[in-house]
Specification:
This protein is of the alpha+beta class. Helices cover 18% and strands 21% of the residues.
Length: 116
């Protein structure tokens, strides 16, 4: 059994797959189909859809990626009001995510990539 702490409210798309995770029940829209799922299942479903949308290519530079090499990036970080959702996710290659010219270049090489 999954504890209450590891459960989230999830907005479903027309195909019945998770498209957005809500942090708290007070944030739920009244008009969308919402269910309660395990956080792990919801995040996994959203990641899978983002990678499917990318179709094997980095969404920034079009380098080949796969589920093992791709990084899931939040366009608008949760700490800045972003959400865990298909719309806010991007599948990026490691270089575009963490490299010198990547979206997190301000943290380079803190993430452990070798210097280029």
């Amino acid at each position: 059994m999954v504890s209450k702490r590891n459960r989230v409210f999830v907005e479903l798309g027309i195909d019945g797959r998770a498209i957005r995770i809500y942090r708290h029940h007070s944030c739920l829209p009244l008009s969308e189909p919402i269910i309660e799922w395990s956080r792990q299942k919801a995040v996994s479903d959203i990641r899978e859809q983002v990678f499917e949308r990318a179709d094997g290519q980095c969404e920034r530079c079009a380098r080949p990626i796969n589920s093992q090499t791709a990084h899931l990036h939040e366009v608008r970080p949760r700490g800045q009001g972003g959400e865990v959702s298909v719309a806010n996710g991007q599948a990026l290659c490691p270089k575009c995510h963490l490299g010198k010219a990547g979206v997190h270049a301000d943290h380079y090489p803190q993430f452990g990539l070798k210097k280029e």
